[in-house]
Amino acid sequence: MQHLIFLADQLSTFVGKAFAWLIGLLMVVVCVEVLKRYILNMPTAWVFDATSMLYGAAFMMCGAYALAQGAHVRGDFLYGSMRPRMQASLDLALYLLFFVPGILALVFAGWDYAADSWRIGERSNITAEGPPVYHFKTLIPIAGALVFTQGLAEILRCIVCLKIGRWPARLKDAEETDVVEQQLAASTHVDEDAKRQAIEGIEAIDEAAHHRIGKDRP
Amino acid sequence: MTDAALGLTMLGLIVVVIMLGFPTAFTLMGLGIMFGYVAFYDPSAPFFDNRVFDLMVERTYGAMTNDTLLSIPLFVLMGYVMERGALVDKMFYSIQLAFRRVPASLAVATLIVCTFWGIASGLVGAVVVLMGVIAMRPMLKAGYDVRLASGVITAGGTLGILIPPSVMIIVYAAVAGQSVVKLYASAMLPGFFLAFLYLLYIIGWALVDRKVAPPLPESELHTPVPGWVTGLAQRYSRNLLAALALAVARPVRAAGIEFDGAAIRYRTLLKNLLVALAPLLLTTATLAGIWWYVTIHRPASLAEANPPPRIEQPAPRVAVPPPAADEAPKELGSGAAEAETAPEPEQEQGLVGSMQPDAGAAAPADAGPPREFFTSFWVSVALCAALLAYYYWMLGAEQFVILKLLTGSVMPLGILTVLVLAVILFGITTATESAGVGAAGAFILALHAKTLNWSRVKEAMFLTAKTTAMVCWLFVGSALFSAVFALLGGQQLVEKWVLSLNLSPVQFMIVSQAIIFVLGWPLEWTEIIVIFVPIFLPLLKHFDIDPVLWGTLVFVNLQAAFLSPPVAMSAFYLKGVSPPHVTLNQIFSGMMPYMLIVILCMVIMYLWPGMTLWLPVYLYGG
């Protein structure tokens, strides 16, 4: 079971990371267009469509990646103070109740939507002779299916957690709190002791803050 | 069960399920699809022919092609790169030195760094942890009151979500159908006003009660001055600006000075002269920019107030810009040249002297900016010139070293953010374009500072992808949810109910902000803006409240919510990195006053909407 979970994680992470680079590409496209439009005075007609496709593709295809990394926002106020088994049983129930029908509907509806678009060879109507959009629309069912697969892995995670009483590990990845380590490692005016303590403790601190647990609380 | 009752059930369920801690985006989708299915249910149609599927996919595609949300990944990327590129520790050190004579200097420096950092990034946790390590211990060591020290870090750390370019504002703009640019302009003054109120509070407290922030010992007030700087000062002049200028003019006498173990090179001298001139150049560039914007580019409000002259007299209108256009570059050059030799009197005279012809030329052309602009512009020019003159007069060796530290750590980040904001606000490019250029600029700065390597680039990219996916999937979910909610008539029911309460606009404002304040305790801003704000938005029209003003109040309000004990996350972050003797209760009692300051700021904003709305109205017209 662990193996299956990791397999799904790896798939989502791989696709997500690949599509994350579209954001870099988006940045380059925007910069080039700014140069062309404002300095060379020769705007490009299809840039608006291109940027929205880059952005739309990036965020849709990273949905599963965010799920695999637990990056989707959740109200962790009560959740954080529960025991893992309680969290897992709640999650399991809610995955089956909300996630499965919601995402299946997205895949199903997206499939029809994309198929219609392919059939008529739909093109963007923002400019005359706009670029084709059927590839772009096809991403909806694909992204939905990817999120669904990852959701199945999350369901398995809940089951594993119910069995063993703690959450199985996630893949290691870039975290927002990594910046603390990088900043402190390069700092010259902070005493070593405090630095080391903060770098080592950052994960626990992050978790405690999300769960609002202070050490000196009774 | 009637449809409207279903709608309210849906709203009730979403609150419960969010509290249970399920990822909100999927909760919204699930609830939306189920209730939507019921709403669209047609017994004669086959199971899969429900129109809720069309609604869902249309809403998804709508989010994928939403040109407001498009700027989110770019701004987020800019934030992550800046966060990795700028060294916050150096910033704190140099700002603290620059403000060493101010009461409670460490706390003031902390607040300034937090504000700057907040401009760059919108993350609360990382700022609080970093400042907790970098600033908390020095403050405690210097004998600062624990409440003062912890309050300033937690309050400063949450400023980032308010001060533009912030992602929260973009999301609100997408939800409310307002222009991002207008919202940025309106959040600008309140954001800095709030930071200013914090500053007043810190300095005021430190002045009233000297014990809370004892002055630093003399030994900590000095920074080592490198040998070559003292050498320069000895050989040429005690005023470093004069010394550098003379050294550039007559480098022979500098020959004996050692720099990094070798004889000092001419390029080094030139570079340092440039550093010394940085304040002058920045001031001139800012003033020239304002001049250019108001008199040549012209804001929308002026264009409206003074309709373009009739065809028979186009001459005066065209005649104004050229002298002004020549003015700016000349000022830059001549100002710099004057400052090199003897800064103060000539420069001031030169600037004030040049005032006459311009004001005279502008007056007959009725299309020009109002007279008051010229008066206030030249008054501020004179003021800046006087300040600069005083500064350069006092520029000793140590001052120069501090200036060098500041230009190395704060200036690049500052210039980039100011530029990004200025081009957005002045309406020169769209928010997306500025964000793209800003992100590229952040990369260049970080590369220049040599703080970026390949693994950090990857990290920033992946983090951006995750954050964007989180925000935008949430948006997809809420778009479906709110459509179904409106479809079931839940929205109408809420509206009817609120209207039947016969609230006055003030009462409605207070009630709505109070609800958001309470929601801010357990929830994150994403959920509040995306799920709950849309419920209030249609009501604003009934009460004749400007959605821009209301939205800005919400942004400020969330600051207060995130500072309210005992749920504020930043307190727990700070607790995690503080020495063990600092208790949570001390941190909370330090935060309390800031929460009250935020509420005071909201009251001022309400009583004086001009503070929020002046800038957007001035820039883009009413």
Secondary structure layout plus pairing:
The complex is a heterodimer of chains A (218) and B (622).
Chain A: H1 2-39, H2 47-61, H3 63-68, H4 76-79, H5 84-120, H6 134-164, H7 178-186, H8 192-211
Helix pairs in contact in A: 1-2, 1-6, 2-6, 5-6, 7-8
Chain B: H1 3-20, H2 24-39, H3 52-64, H4 71-85, H5 88-98, H6 105-120, H7 124-141, H8 146-158, H9 167-176, H10 180-208, H11 227-235, H12 240-249, E1 258-259, E2 262-263, H13 266-297, H14 300-305, H15 315-319, H16 321-341, H17 344-353, H18 355-362, H19 371-393, H20 397-409, H21 411-425, H22 431-448, H23 454-487, H24 490-500, H25 505-519, H26 525-542, H27 547-562, H28 569-577, H29 584-607, H30 610-620
Antiparallel strand pairs in B: 1-2
Question: Which descriptors apply to this entry?
Answer:
heterodimer, A: 218 residues, mainly alpha, flat, B: 622 residues
What this model shows, in words?
The complex is a heterodimer of chains A (218) and B (622). Chain A has 218 residues and is mainly α. Chain A contains 8 helices and no strands. Chain A has helices at 2-39, 47-61, 63-68, 76-79, 84-120, 134-164, 178-186, 192-211. The mean pLDDT of chain A is 86. Chain B has 622 residues and is mainly alpha-helical. Chain B is 75% helix and 1% strand. Chain B has 30 helices and 2 strands. The radius of gyration of chain B is 28 Å and the shape is elongated. The model of chain B is unreliable at 308-366 (pLDDT under 50). Chains A and B meet through helix 1, helix 2, helix 3, helix 4 and helix 5 of A and helix 1, helix 2, helix 3, helix 4 and helix 5 of B.
